[in-house]
Amino acid sequence: MTDETYEGDTADETHEGDTADETYTIREVARRFHMEPSTLRYYEDQGLLTNVDRNASGQREYRRCHIDRLKAICCFKNAGMTIGDLKQFFVYEQNEPAHIDEMLDLLRARSEALDEQRRALNEAAMHVQRKLHYYGDIKRALDEGNPLPDWKNYKTQTYPIDC
């Protein structure tokens, strides 16, 4: 395994040298995904990571399929899915044709929640930008001995937000 790490699901990336039959220790997988080994054990206990083999000394051996599942888990967790949502999604995924409507409903609900969070974050970011401009102008006015600005001239202004 290389030292390169994942920050959640990043498309279908593979690490140089990864093969379907290569195995990874719990520490290697935890490091790769920036999580504690206890989190991996929890995911296994919750049924999110299945069929994790053990070697002769009883240590977990993760394979490519577990890495792929962890990428999906991290992506969905970053999108705000709960453990319950993930469990349900993966149950549905076992028989997609029979559960396609439920899968789409779950994903649409998460998409709508993300859109609302994005709107709220954009609104908060704009308010912070307005305050930065307002207080920056107050500082300049104080430094230059000019009259202080009035907030009413800032509260509806639109400023660029860099992402």
From TrEMBL:
Pfam families, A to Z: MerR_1
Chain ranges of the HTH merR-type domain: 23-92
Record keywords, A-Z: DNA-binding
PROSITE patterns membership: HTH_MERR_2 (PS50937)
Cross-referenced InterPro entries: DNA-bd_dom_put_sf, MerR-type_HTH_dom, MerR_fam
Superkingdom, taxonomy of origin: Bacteria
Stretches for region Disordered: 1-21
SUPFAM superfamilies hit by this protein: Putative DNA-binding domain (SSF46955)
Basic and acidic residues bias: start-end ranges: 12-21
Composition bias type Acidic residues, residue spans: 1-11
Protein name: MerR family transcriptional regulator
Species of the source: Bifidobacterium santillanense
